[in-house]
Amino acid sequence: MIHDLPAGKYAISSYHDENGNGKLDTNMLGIPEEGYGFSNDARDLFGPPKFPEAAFDFDGKTDKAIAFSIQY
What we know:
6% of the residues lie in helices and 17% in strands. By secondary structure, the protein is mainly beta. It has one domain (8-58).
């Protein structure tokens, strides 16, 4: 949970550190080997999505829950 976040446009990314090594593991081609996801379930074929695709507006006043899928 994040507190005292000012109003603005935000995007969130997350990954499942399955082996607990503190990083997103990738193969030799840079393709993730662990689950990952972005707000709005944004995707891109060749890397992370662009900010506008994952962005959402936050008014700074209300509680907001963001749900998205972790892709494997």
